[in-house]
Amino acid sequence: MIKKSKFDIIYQKIVNTIAEKGLWSEGKIRTKYVDGSPAHYKSYIGYQFRLDNSDDEAHLITSRFAPSKAPIRELYWIWILQSNNVDELNKIGCKFWNEWKQEDGTIGKAYGYQIAKKTFGYDSQLHYIINELKNNPNSRRIMTEIWIPEDLDKMALTPCVHLTQWSVINGKLYLEVRQRSCDVALGLVANVFQYSVLHKLVALECNLEPAEIIWNIHNVHIYDRHYDNLIKQVNGETFAPAKLKINNFTDIFSFKPDDVEIIDYKYGEKIDYEVAI
User: Fold this and answer.
1) pTM for the predicted model, two decimal places
2) I want to staple 265 with a disulfide (CB 3.0 to 4.6 A). Which of 75, 200, 242, 274 is the partner?
3) What is the pLDDT of residue 1?
């Protein structure tokens, strides 16, 4: 019997929960497809899952092909480069933010711009959490936040994944993530993989063992043009999980996207889901 990946199991439960208990959007909505049509969705409010990130399993779904390189490049752009410049992201091979690029070439005061802010005297929010984990691991204030009220109107898109909180118990590192809005077909697949890698990088930097990721979503949804294919996808064939390896690690600020290696990734067919913007 083929072992099912941890995230495949979680992902199927999320999709089936929305299918069984979710409600369709009504009235005026913000999101639309590239052709200008409204992107309606079926959503479920308030979902949490826990993902064991303690071993070398790569948290990529196998029910379809899930890109691994672009999500890690975006992670690098936000957390290591701490950039909001879309041209810089394009140069490292990721086009995730092209639809939101503003005239100045940035996404405004969003994502990497906020991570780069000095926090309690440290150079950035990432510097802060690393120093606290190393020097004050019992703190319950080891957090990052990029939902900044005074800057929201200066962002090309307000953040979806916006908060992280980190805790150490008996040498094990727990990461909690808070997401205000979650597109299951596209966003969730990339986000969970990204943050599982970030979790491992911070653990390596702080000489801790990665434990669980606790993921909280307020509005988890499936867009109407994704719905039928996604239901079929998660109830189809899955494969044994791939392995993840981080090479050449010296310190987190020297990390490069190519340091992430995915081994033996097997998956179902490639499915193209339209982006709702």
Assistant:
1) 0.97
2) 242
3) 59
